[in-house]
Every structure is written in C-alpha cells, then in structure tokens.
Design goal:
This protein is α/β, with parallel strands linked by helices and about 425 residues long. It has helices at about 40-45, 50-55, 75-90, 100-105, 110-130, 160-180, 200-220, 245-255, 270-275, 280-290, 315-325, 350-375, 380-385, 390-400, 405-415, 425-435, and strands spanning about 35, 35-40, 45-50, 95-100, 135-140, 185, 190-195, 225-230, 240, 260-265, 290-295, 335. The longest helix has 28 residues, at about 350-375. It is globular, with a radius of gyration of 24 Å. Its cofactor is Mg(2+).
C-alpha cells in the first residue's frame, strides 16, 4: 500500500539516452550486459537510510529545512519511515539498502529497550524484504551521535562506553545477519582525538584493535558469511582520525593481525578530505587485497568539508570503476549512495531524481571503464612501461636471488647508464577522455 508521500510516481524505467523524461533512466539499464555480467550485478546499487530519511536539512549555520511526516521519536513514526523508505527503494528498483541502528528506530531509555526497538523494526524490514523488497548490503551501528560517544566509542577513556559500544555492535551484527546482510561496516566517526594533552594514542589504538578483533571473533562465532568493513575517514568531526585513509587502515590491520579478516568501505568524499583521489584509494585497497565496498558521492571542491553530494562527474566515476573492475569487481560489496539532497531541495520528487541522476552517472562510468579494459587502453601501455621486469635477470632481483653486491657488480660489469623514458601522462589522459 502506498504511503502517498511520493504521489503518483511509479517505478523508474530505462528509456535510453534520448529520453526527455526526468524520471527515467537514460544510461542505467539493469539488464545490459557489461563484460559478461548484468549491469545491475556489477554496480550493486544501495540506497542509504540516513541521508534520505533522517537528515532534516540543517547545516552549521541553519536549522531544519525538510518537513517529513515521519520525523519524531516514536515507533509508529519509525514504521512509517520504513514504509516510505521501502516505497522509494521500489520506485528506484534499487537492489540493496543500508542503515545504522540509530536511523531506523528511536533510542530507548535503556540499552535493552533500544535493542528491542531495533529488533521490532528489523521484523518490519524482514516482512518487506520477503515481499520482494531489496536486500541489505550492510548494516552498521551509530557510535558517534549520542553524547556518550563525544570522546569516541572503542577509543573512549571510559571502559563503560567501550562496553556499551561493543554491546551495540553485537546487536547490530545480529540484526544484519538476520536480514541477510552481505557486509557489516564499522565507521569510527569519533575514533580519534582533539588534542594530545588528554590523549594516550598507544592505549587508544590498542583499545580499537581489541574492539575490532572481538567483532571478527563474533562474526565467526555466529557464522556471519559477509565481510567486515572499516570505512576510512580522515577528519570531520575529529581532527586526528585513527582510520585516516586506506594506507593507515591497512597498517592498523597488519599491526593487530586482521589484514586477512577485514576489508575497507571507501567513500569518495573521504578520499578527497585525505588529500587523495577516489581512484588512488581504490587502487591501493585493490593492491593490498582489502577492497570491499564503496560509498559514492562527491565533495564541493570549494568547500573544506564532506558535502555528500550525488555524483555527477562521469570521468571521475569512470576512473573509479576502472580500478574496481581491474581488481575483480565487487563480491559482497556494492555502490552505496551515501549522498544527500541540498537543503533547498524540498520536494519528494527531488529524492527520486537525485538517485536517478547518480545511477545514470555510475552507469556511464562503468561502461566507459569496461570499454577501456576491453580495449586494453590503459593496461597495454602499463604493461609496456614495466616490460623490463619480465627479463630473467630483473626477475631475479625481485625474487631475492641477487644481493646488493651482485647487483652492483652487474651494473659495473655491463656499464649500465639508463636513460629515462617518457611517462606519456598527457597522452594517457587523452586516451581516457576519448572514452568518457
């Protein structure tokens, strides 16, 4: 039964690039075959709960601009919110959705009441999913909004906060498994510090390592088959985040012996805040074997914070999907729209149109990336650039079959005096531009 919030908007259909219908896909055709697989199965789109159904449109200098009929702290309103959410998922034909516990139920007076409410909403979700609704890409716990977490969750100096956070994650993992979630994400919104004057970094890192180890242990205990994901975030709100970027997270995982147990959920906006490009973070995660899933959004490059706007830059998205495809594509992961409307975009139809635009941009990027891979447009020049390493003597250097003295002797014996070769960057950029 329709909630009426979206009026008479029906399911969004693919109408092709020449369509002038604002509420139709021009490029996202779920059944189109790309590199031998359906486009929907490559992209694995997910719609997030928090920005679409929780955020009231405020910013640091202004209050609420959105007026939604489900805003409030009752279970009846939480169920209405779920009804509207699943109606939107259906309109978009989204195969997945994502949520925090705090998004879907009002917090109770006690931990037990909060868990009870979460399970009640999970029952509501389960009925909708069994009736043909989308699958759960991942669940997570909000360990940053409540004032108890002002000094962090796992890294908090108060062991009672650590314990409360651990119990909350257990409850959320239980619900994620019950709903068939394909991943579980930990986003350390306040796992960092404001000043070293009151911070013992070594202690806090050990706390965080123990916390994540317990999560992994519990995953195996309950037989959760999905991936455990950590989302790198460099700053905002905490000045020094312990999960700054992919490289930092990998170093952390290695230190605590978790590099084979945990992967990363990479957000484009966070990559930019860390001083990287999105494709850099994806390429590094792929090279390290920890690429799990992505949050796709964009920042306003004139602003110094994470603005969470819907993607609209096809070349950026194409280079991102190129890295994803080059490293084998998604397994349990997918493309989560961690993006929100602008605070002046008040109408229900804006929610639908924003996702249509983002899905079309991703589809165009995917197709461009796939074509580059099919044609060897970037891989052939890359193979040529490193071709010298295929020579037996050069392979021997990397295999540890030559010592430093051996190599020095060869350089002297063969009178090596290598000349630099062009990196051809501009020519490669021109190649990319032919595809996008």
């Amino acid at each position: 039964m329709s909630t009426g919030f979206f009026g008479n908007i029906g399911p969004v259909k693919y109408e092709g690039p020449d369509s002038d219908n604002e509420l139709a896909f021009r490029h996202y055709n779920p059944d189109e075959i790309v590199l031998g697989k359906r486009m929907e199965d490559h992209l694995r789109f997910a719609v997030c709960y928090w920005h679409n159904f929780v955020w009231p449109g405020n910013d640091p200098f202004g209050g609420q601009t959105f007026e939604r009929p489900w805003f409030g702290e009752t279970m009846d309103l939480a169920r209405l919110k779920a009804d509207v959410a699943f109606e939107m998922f259906d309109i978009l034909g989204a195969p997945f959705y994502t949520f925090h516990d705090h998004d879907v139920r009002p917090e109770g007076e006690t931990y037990s009441e909060s868990v009870k409410r979460l399970n009640e909403i999970a029952d509501h979700f389960q009925g909708k999913m069994e009736a043909g609704g989308p699958k759960l890409l991942w669940g997570t716990a909000n360990l940053f909004s409540n004032r108890r977490y002002m000094a962090g969750a796992a890294t908090n100096p108060d062991p009672d906060v650590f314990a409360y956070a651990a119990a909350t994650v257990k409850a959320c993992m239980d619900v994620t498994q019950r709903l068939g979630g394909q991943n579980y994400v930990l986003w350390g919104g306040r796992e960092g510090y404001e000043t070293l004057l009151n911070t013992d970094m070594g202690r806090e890192l050990d706390q965080l390592g123990r916390f994540l180890s317990m999560v992994v242990d519990y995953k195996h205990k309950i037989g959760f088959e999905g991936a455990i994901l950590v989302e790198p975030k460099p700053q905002e709100p905490t000045k020094h985040q312990y999960d700054f970027d992919v490289a930092t997270v990998y170093g952390f995982l290695k230190r605590y012996g978790l590099e084979n147990e945990v992967k990363v959920n990479i957000e484009q906006g966070h990559a930019i805040l860390a001083g990287h490009s999105f494709e850099h973070e994806l390429a590094l995660a792929g090279a390290l074997g920890i690429l799990g899933s992505i949050d796709v959004n964009r920042n306003d490059y004139q602003s110094g914070w994470d603005t969470d706007q819907f993607p609209n830059n096809v070349p950026e998205v194409a280079l991102a999907y190129y890295q994803i495809l080059a490293h084998g594509g998604f397994t349990t992961g997918g493309t989560n729209f961690d993006a929100k409307l602008r605070r002046q975009s008040l109408d229900p139809v804006d929610l639908i149109a924003a996702h249509i635009g983002g899905m079309d941009v991703c589809a165009r990027g995917l197709k461009a990336a796939a074509k580059m891979i099919e044609d060897g447009a970037l891989s052939n020049p890359l193979d040529e650039r490193y071709a010298g390493w295929n020579q037996p003597e050069n392979k021997a250097m990397l295999k540890g079959e030559r010592s430093l003295e051996d190599i020095a002797a060869r350089v002297e014996r063969e009178n090596l005096d290598p000349e630099p070769r062009s990196g051809r960057q501009e020519r490669l950029e021109n190649i990319v531009n032919r595809y996008v």
